[in-house]
Amino acid sequence: MSVQSSAPFDEGDFTLRDGTNIRALPKVSLHDHLDGGLRAQTIIELADEIGLELPATNAPELSNWFADQSDSGSLVEYLKTFDVTTAVMQTSHGLRRVARDFVNDLGADGVVYGEVRWAPEQHLKRGLSLDDAVNAVQAGINEGIDDVRSHGKRIRVGQLVSAMRHAGNGLEIAKLAVRHREQGVVGFDIAGPEDGFPPTNLQEAFDYLMSERFPATVHAGEAAGLDSIESAIFDAHALRLGHGVRIAEDIDLEGEDEDGTYVSLGRLAQWVRDRRIPLELSPSSNLQTGAITAWGENIEDHPFDLLYQLGFTVTVNTDNRLMSATSVSRELTLLADTFDYDLADLETFQLNAAEGAFLPIEDREELAEIVSEGFDEAGA
């Protein structure tokens, strides 16, 4: 049985201004990387088992190292921290342990439905096959779900299998995802360096997924702009946009007066908004990687509120909980404090995520009911 290590950071007291406990609210997490959500103590223990030297040897210092390294303003530099986490995720034991911890941490944060994305092709250095890796992660997910439910909470978690957009294995990974569609894999993703590696490089994979009626989300609009978003939607048939924050580049601010701010939407922004294509926004990560430098360098500069007020289907995500020292509750707290959101706003974000979940319509409706019931109880 896996040892359940302490969480990677102190969750703190995340509350709305009216005193509502945000951690207790039912939440939906759509954009959360397995190799970005490890507990620091778990890394230390798994590294010791394989003789891996780490930049720090106690959990608080290692957590701080990840946060410092990730706060670079560059996606390329940010991604280098994953060399450490993936190094301890090369065995069935390591993958199973990390996945179990991952689900337990979601449950502790009040997440009732989560999708965990990861790239199996990055976990084959110690002899695992692609199928072995997916099976190991699913075993850990199942154990984590049992742990959470044993504490009287509800949770459901699905895998998003990612292909690395620069590696050239897109079709093989797409077939892997479809092969495991009845064993926990709910969708497909492409990850890694976005700029210079458009979705069309993996066109064969996306065409195959479409032929199999298998859903995909695509990292787009983070390190690259509108062309990346357009290709994700129209070439890759993406049902959601991983980040997608730079869709705001297609919104022109025309002026403001005492009645408010006037804007016009470009055709791509109009398409994304009107078809309710979910944006998997990750505020803290977007600051760290420089995804919002066109608007500023602070949380109040994030175009999240602009997109929300204009009717885009915004969702709130962590991206990488270890690198950003965050949780869904922390991200919601940051947004609520910055933009003066109330309980109804936070419920909208969760319902948007429930709507965009890669689940059958009946399950999405049930998930929305779970969210609404929980928020109703909190507001009573």
TrEMBL record:
Xref: PANTHER family: ADENOSINE DEAMINASE (PTHR11409)
Gene Ontology CC terms, in alphabetical order: cytosol
Sequence ranges assigned to domain Adenosine deaminase in this UniProt record: 26-372
Organism of this sequence: Pseudoclavibacter helvolus
Entry keyword set: Hydrolase, Metal-binding, Nucleotide metabolism, Zinc
Span of the signal peptide: none
Keyword Zinc in record: yes
Pfam families assigned: A_deaminase
GO biological process: adenosine catabolic process; hypoxanthine salvage; inosine biosynthetic process; nucleotide metabolic process
Gene3D superfamilies assigned to the protein according to its UniProt record, in alphabetical order: Metal-dependent hydrolases
Protein name: adenosine deaminase
Enzyme class: hydrolase
Record family assignment: Belongs to the metallo-dependent hydrolases superfamily. Adenosine and AMP deaminases family.
GO molecular function, a single term: adenosine deaminase activity
Cofactor needs: Zn(2+)
E.C. numbers: 3.5.4.4
Domain of life: Bacteria
